[in-house]
Each structure stands twice: as C-alpha cells, then as structure tokens.
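Example record

The entry below shows one chain as it appears in the dataset: sequence first, then structure tokens.
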Amino acid sequence: MARITLKNIRKSYDQKSVLNNINMIIEEGKFTVLLGPSGSGKTTLLHGIAGLVSFDHGDIFFYDKLMNHVSIDKRNAVLVDQNLLLFPHMNVKDNIAFGLKMRRVNKNEIQQKVEELVRLLELNGHENKYPNELSGGQMQRVAIARALAIGVEVLLLDEPFSKLDIVLRKNMQEFVRNLQQTLKITILMVTHDQEEALSIADKVALLINGEIKQYDTPHRIYEKPGSKEVADFFGVRNYMQGNIVNGKLRTEIGIFDTTLPNHEEITFMFRPEEIILVPNHSEGIKGVVVKRVYSGDKIVYTIKVQKLSLVVSSFTHKDYQIDDEVNIKLMFDQAVYFK
C-alpha cells in the first residue's frame, strides 16, 4: 500500500494545458476515483502516476519518496485499463503467473500465489481457459489478479468497466470494491460515470478542464457541491436568485422565512428530488406541468412557476399530466447556497 502525493502537477500538449496545478493526496489503503468528462485530464494524470507520461512540472511522491524519474517497473504501481492486454496464447494460470516468472520467483511460491489469487478473484474452474474463452468480467478479474500477483502497492484502473454491459458492470464494481476493502490496497480509478464514482469510492476528485474542482467524499461532493460547476456535473439542478433581509428570503416566486444571515444577492440550488409535489388543497407554491418524462421508478416533471421552470423528480403514484395545476413545496433546509 502507498500514499501518493501530487504537488503542482502541470502538463500541456501542443501548448494546450491538460493538467493545471494539480495538488492532491491519494490516501493509503483507500479507493479514490478521478471523475470528469472526456478531455478533462484524468487519464493523463493516471498515466503520469504510472510512469507512462512525464509531467512538465511538479512532483509525485509515494510516501516520502520522489518518483519523478523512477522507471515504470520500479514504481510498484500497475495500470489496468479497458483493453486489458492479456496474453492470448497463455491460459489464466500463466497470465496470472507471468510477472512472478519474470522476477524468477520459485515454482512452488508461484503455484501457491496463483492458487490464492484464483480463489480470491473467484476464477475457480477457469484456470486452464484462454482469454478468448472468458467473459468480459472474467478477463477483468484475470488482469487484476496478474497485477496483484507481483505485490503492487497501487492499482491504477482506467475506465476498467466501460466495455461491459450494465449488469456485469454493476457486478464488477461491487466485486472490485469488496476486493479493495479485503486487501486494503490503494486503488486509483478513472471514470466519467457519476453513479459509478459515487457508489464505489472513498473519495472523489472531480476534474474539469485540467483542474480539480472538488476533492471530497461521495456524500459531500453530491450533497454539498462547492460550486455551480460541480453541482451541474452531477445532473439537472434548479437555481433561484434572491436576497435575504431580516430573516426573509425574497425570490422571483415568493417570500420565505429563513434563518440565514442577510445577503444582498444569493443563489440557491434545489435538486429535483428536493422539490415536493403536495396535494392541491395543501399549502404550497402553485405551478403548471409543462413536461413529463416517465422512467419506471419515477416521473420527472417540468413545472412552470410564474416565469421560472423547475424540474421535479417524483416517486409518488400520483400521475400528473401536461397542463395539470400542481402545488410544490421547496425543501429550503436541504438547499445548497452559493454566495
């Protein structure tokens, strides 16, 4: 296991900045995810840690050891990406054992290690199969077993599940998360999938345009985004402008009580699930349904309230139609405020 420290990392290609002053600590024995859209720099950062890319500026430390000029094979960090690159002419056992053989480990120790990893990675019964005889998930597990065989301190995963179907992808996410918790190995994974990052990580670093916009726990980065840019990355959000004077929040759709201090101008955000549809005879803010999208477990409405359009996610069995009048309740205690 290793703690990785990145200090003032910068990288450019053709005079275009890809990574801009990255500073972060990847904690020992934790599952950290680099999340971001395509072109955000997350794979470049991962490859730099692996030693496949040289940064223009900055330092990488494993614990307190400077790794800038340490060769790939001496970093004790192995990259597993979506292409896997298993040896097609080797069966599962030989693929797992390859790194140990290159290090001239004795045969008995190799056999013992391979058997241990076959059990751990749930590959029993597949030891003599070749890559073209395996499913996508099985090939993923072989690639991970091959990395673990040589005793790596850091496992680097680059979009490892992106080529799997949704059911297998969910299974592999759970499998790798359980494996990490069992072994307490340091894992750094790249993904563009918000749901995957939130469900699997101990901490998430959101990269946009080569900068870390927020580095936090999954709960905090989703529930307490540090900026509108971070909030928007995680899906549809509702924003309102207002000002607060003497405990009154004045907005374009009404005046509400608040315990927040006075602010001349404030932006507050509601997620679609934080706006509640209430019975028409109840107290609430009146609006009209202008759009509805049914997605099985919920219905997402767009509701016009005066000049403001609000997106509301409802799990109720009540099915409103376009042009229906509705009442909504805003959950101000759950709103996020941006000054």
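Notes for this example: Residues 166-183 form the longest helix (18 residues). The first strand starts at residue 4 and ends at 13.
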